[in-house]
Structure formats: structure tokens, C-alpha cells
Amino acid sequence: MAFDVSGISTWNDERSDKNLLLQTALLTPKSMKYFRKIGGISGENVKLPVFETTTPWQAGTGCNYTTSGTTTITQKTITTVPVTVQETICPNTLQDLFTKQTWIPGNTSTPETGEVISWWVERKLAQLGIQLERALWQAKTTYTNATYLKHFDGFIEKIDAASDEVVVTARTSITTSNVLDIFDEFCFNATTGIPNQIADKDPKIFCGYDTFRILQNKLWTGNYFNVKAEGSSLDAFELMYPGTNIKVIGVPGLNNNSPVDSGSLATAVKNRIFATYTDNLVVGFNVEADTSNFEVWYSKDDRNIKCHMRFFVGVLPVFTDEIAAYANT
Predict the structure, then answer these.
(1) Sequence-ordered list of residues with C-beta below 8 angstroms from that of 14, at least 6 positions apart, any chain
(2) What is the rounded distance in angstroms from the CA atom of residue 207 to the CA atom of residue 238?
(3) Vertex 85: Cα angle to 83 and 91 (nearest 5)
(4) Spatial distance between the Cα atoms of 257 and 265, rounded to a whole number of angstroms
(5) pLDDT of 67-77, one tens digit each?
(6) What is the pLDDT of residues 109-142, one digit of tens each?
(7) pTM score > 0.85 for this model?
(8) Where along the chain do its domains lie?
């Protein structure tokens, strides 16, 4: 709504680094690099064609022609919803505070000047990226605990609602005592893990940072000192599972501690693990560079600085029967 300055003191020239503003770590939507992205979807239902064809074999000794194949065209629907983010701030609020050194002189300001404005815009965009990462997985339209989780159904809700995914055996919790059993089932059990039909499609296992760290700890303490196989990047929470060609990827969108405005994060989105190939997870946008529509301007009518961002977003797990999913009991 506006600046909350209750936590800072009035400005004093302390001759310190005047450009330093403490802020939380910035994140971008890590999961997006693994999803298939489709631009140009602005709210309407878009039908994505799916082709299937049969190839019956026939004896090739004669000169006749007998048609026997069948090609079926079906459709998968992806829908995006509009999301708007807006804020108005009064530059005079900071006139006598520590930000005076990075604010332009006088009683007014414009978006083109002042370090505070630059920081404000950058942080705003970073926060949107953090929330988008979580929403892509954990959003559900019936949720009321956070504004960023209620505008569309994320991958978890759509996979669960389809009810035809491959179900990995549930446990009461994920611990160092059972984490290898869970991931072994994903990787090596074709019945309750990654199905054979996608084994050659470079499947990946997605989990939260919390689950990834439990797995990493167990692999280390279990004396797997050569666990960092080629293709692993532990600083990026990516690990080639030992003895396989399957990469385990930790993403913040599946963390158990995504913050909410009230109440708590829904149990249905906690301790979840999913495995599939990346083209099977689709994110739709009105354009792929939606964040370029972020606008900041100085409004002379009320002498405030305003920002506005509007974009469309939606997700589609294309073939849910080609997804292996884990949830606690």
C-alpha cells in the first residue's frame, strides 16, 4: 500500500556506504528453465494439438495396398489468467530519513532519478520472480492464505486432480532413514516410479530444497563420497542420482516453507516430489518477456510515484499419466 518506515530512524550522515540498502536475497524463478514455455496466451483457452498414430505391419510380399493405420488428433487446453501488481509511494515520506543521500534534492522525484527508485524497481521485480516460482507449483484457486497462490491452479493441483499419475509409495515423512528408498523407487521401479515409456526422454526429479538437502545428507553420510557425478551442480541444487542418468533438481517452488499472508501453507503442497520430462510441463504467458511491461511513473496530479505490472500466466501438465508423484501419508 505504501512505505512502512517504522523500522528505520531519521536520517543521519554517517559517512558510510550511501548506496548500501539491506535487502533479502534475490531469487528468480528457477523452475522456469526446465519448463516448456509458450507465449502469446492472453487469458483465452488455447488448444494444444496432440498427435497419436498407429503403424500396423503387413506382409510385404504382394503388390496390393491396404490402409490399416489410424492417426488420432486430440487437444490439451491451457488457460492463462491476468495478474496485476500495483503500488503508490509518496517520495516525501523519505525526505528526512537515511535515504536522503540517495534521493534527489527537493520535495519531488521522478522514476528516472535517485538510487531508491532503482532499488525499488529491482526489488519489486525480484519479489515477483520469487512468488511466481512458488505459484507455478503450489497455487490453487481456492486458497485464501496468500494473494499470489489463489489466481490459478499450479502443477501440484492439476496433477493431483487428474488422478492418473504414477503414485510413488507414501511415507509418513521424508527422513534420512527413508529418503533413499523413496528416490530408489522413483528411479528403479517402473511400476510405482518413473514409467518405462518416458525413461528415454531425459526424465528429471523435482523436489524442494529441504528434501534435496535430506537426500544430499544421506548420500554423504552413507559414504557415497563420489556422489557428485558428471552433470551434477550441487551449488545449484542439482544432483545426478547415483547409478542412473536421472537428475534430481531442488527447486524453491516445492519448499515446505513458502510464506503465506495468513494461516499456513496447505499440507497438500508440502513434501512433494515429481518426476517427468521437461516438455511435459508447460507454462503459458501472454509474452515470454512479461516483466518488460513493468511500468513506473511520476504522477503530477497527486505527486506520487506509481508502479503497475500486468501479465498472464497459467500451467499445464500435458500427460499426467507420464508423471510420477510422491506425497506423505
Answers:
(1) none
(2) 10
(3) 170
(4) 7
(5) 888 998 888 88
(6) 444 456 677 778 788 888 888 999 999 999 999 9
(7) no
(8) 30-34+78-326
